[in-house]
Amino acid sequence: MTHWLRALAAILLSAAFMMSNATHAAAASPDFSVAKYGAKPDGKTMNTKAIQAAIDAAAKQGGTVTFPAGTYLTGSIFVKSGVTLKVGKGVTLLGSQDIKDYPVLPTRIAGIEMKWPAALVNVYQQDNARIEGEGTIDGDGKVFWDSYWTLRKQYEPRGLRWASDYDAQRPRLIQVFDSKDVKLGGGLLLKRAGFWTVHICYSESVTIDGVIIRNNQDGLGPSTDGIDIDSSKKILVQNADIDVNDDALCMKAGRDSDGLRVARRTEDVVVRDSIVRSGAAGFTFGSETSGGFRNIEAYNITVLDKVPVGILFKSAHTRGGFGENIRLHDFTMKGTPVVLRITMNWNPSYSYAKIPDDVKDVPPYWKVLATQVPKEQGMAQLRDVQIWNIKATGAKTAFEVDSYKEKPATRFTLKNLDIQAEQGGHLYDIADWTFENARLKLGKPVEMEDGKAVRGLAQGSFVVQPRPIKEDPSKKSFEEQDKS
């Protein structure tokens, strides 16, 4: 037998052995029905203890937790190492509307480390866990949305818009925190999250494959993000179908002084084959940029007309951080108003924390949020970004790009663009941008300060118009549409 035939035989034998072992392991994995632990699928009985008992029993043998069809009211549950939580077809996990049913734990929330109510379903400091099935996880979150709006109306006149998101405690739907080798998906319907829907934080080797997210029921829930990848690495997101009222597919890496202290990147992430039906943007970086982003790829993303921005980079003067080696390609935008937006002064009333003098009892996390960041450290730097194969129809503006003079958005390559928009928009404070095969049909040209910063603009109707008035973009108070 020749060497290559022997090698092939060895490979096939090894593969057959691994398949046999996998089949045996799957067959040997026991099921643990929550019914045996007293759970009742009537939508009224509180089943937290019963479901957790089934999970704890399964953790001892590496088993699968199953549910007879029906609706299970529950508070926070915690999936353990080696456990598969199987939410099958016809099964609904219904979140409690009592915040006391979500224990307060150390975590990161909206960019800072603090104690916060646990999610409805948690993988918290575990390895090798699964959440899967064709059933539903329903946060029943309207009561938490309403409590947020009530507090925010009280806070805004006092200059405390920034604090409302941290004081109005609301449970996320699913959180994977400080964990490894986690899989989520299989056709799960995730709906009505009280806060963010899926939050992957400080974790590694996580796959999200096949989730449907529907948060715009019972109203428009504030900050009901779809999938947030937060200071984590080796993440795959695919086959997601998202309808939310804030960031849909979002990369995060910490906020301001606390995010700079932690300094954990989001890196080695692939997001693909997904659709965003509604949300603040199709694919977003930030505004929590402090730890930085590296080696991020997103492709085969469809963004529809209820989404105001297709690709969004957002930060603030106190965030800092960076984004580099980013590849965004094969996006289809249908009626999305803005194709590409970069803003370094996002939503000032939320982004900049200042404690009023008349406030006496200041929570510790308010002090963290209000900690000053030096100007140089607070400027985020974007560099080495590739964007290609972008098709956009029915847009209002092609580009809204505002960076820093001191740290311009650098080395962007945009290739194979096919954009139809009412106006070109503007490109301010950029360096070494290249356009290749840019087919743009624009009602008005693109404005910029320095035409030397861009190459390859003489194609189609994509023409450059010098910026008419010199002004410092860092002084602008551009505020993105704030649905929350």
TrEMBL record:
Coiled-coil stretches noted in the UniProt entry, renumbered to this chain: none
GO molecular function annotation: polygalacturonase activity
Disordered as annotated region, ranges: 464-484
Ranges annotated as biased composition (Basic and acidic residues): 468-484
Signal peptide: 1-25
Pfam families: Glyco_hydro_28
Keyword match Ion transport: no
Keywords assigned: Glycosidase, Hydrolase, Signal
GO biological process, one term: carbohydrate metabolic process
Hydrolase listed as a keyword: yes
Family: Belongs to the glycosyl hydrolase 28 family.
Protein name: Glycoside hydrolase family 28 protein
Organism from which the protein derives: Pseudoduganella umbonata
